[in-house]
Prior knowledge:
Elements: E1 5-10, H1 15-26, E2 36-41, H2 47-59, E3 65-71, H3 74-78, E4 83-86, H4 98-119, E5 125-128, H5 133-142, E6 152-154, H6 157-171, E7 178-179, E8 182-184, E9 192-194, E10 199-201, E11 207-209, H7 210-214, H8 217-221, H9 223-229, H10 231-239, H11 245-260, E12 268-273, E13 285-293, E14 296-299, H12 307-332
Parallel strand pairs: 1-2, 1-4, 2-3, 4-5, 5-6
Antiparallel strand pairs: 7-10, 8-9, 10-11, 12-13, 13-14
Amino acid sequence: MSEPIRVVVTGAAGQIAYSLLYMIAKGDVFGPNQPLILHLLDIPPMMGVLEGVVMELADCALPLLRGVVPTADPAEAFKGVVAAFLVGAMPRKQGMERKDLLSANVKIFKVQGEALDQYADKNVKVLVVGNPANTNALICSRFAPSIPKENFTAMTRLDQNRAQAQIAGRVNVPVANVSNIVIWGNHSSTQFPDGSHGQVKMDSGKTVSVREAVGDDAWLRSTFVETVQKRGAAVINARKMSSAMSAAKAAGDHMKDWFHGTSSGQFVSMGVISDGSYGTPKDVVFSFPVTIKNKKWEIVKNLQIDDFGRKMLDITGKELEEERGEALAIIGA
């Protein structure tokens, strides 16, 4: 057993955290031999609920969990953490536009960036889950200048998991048989779920391209794209609340790959600071296919982008530039 690591989850009394905390504390994310101390941050009115969560974590009797620090103080929450799940944000409600979310949440992520800068481990790996995740990650990074920009990421793994599940259902294979589906751009309805680089291991044992397995390019460019783009809204309509269990699973997947690396020949989607790859705007947090080794991600280069893909990348890139402009205006106000 190694020394315990410190991991913070914000919005710790909320729905997503309720599923996520158990996964982390059980060893699903950082590994079965990695003890940890959980820092749980929420706002003062939620401290009573958080107390109940702390009780439940104790009652789980989890061997890896060496301590729990429930707090409403960012200084205490971020002290010495090596991984941060920034889940806490004002949630999107029915009929709410992402732009309404921006003004409320940008201010939260400014404060958290400042706290990370001051108190966290300088190699901290930060995953922003709270929406609008890409722009929140960008703002958070701006207010944590002593932490490398590449250590701030936004979650598009939920979209990747959704896309993988759609393909698996369409061709009737287990979801684990589908790989290298890409989510480009923003975690919003402009994102581009792209199956054109994906692979499917068929029941015969043979691995073929997603295009070959599906055999319907029109479906891949219309129904598939729209289903993944609108899946979050569909869950809200059905559940009357936003995705929680699936979001927690995706957050765990994202951080697990970041700490342990991607398998040979496989890539995953992460919102990362753009260097302009694939003609995307620079200095926005854009979802790319990445490979990960030694806790460092690298954008997968030289994937072919057709005319349809180019158009989709431009649309989502433009939205991210607009969001960045609005966010900076709010911060400046």
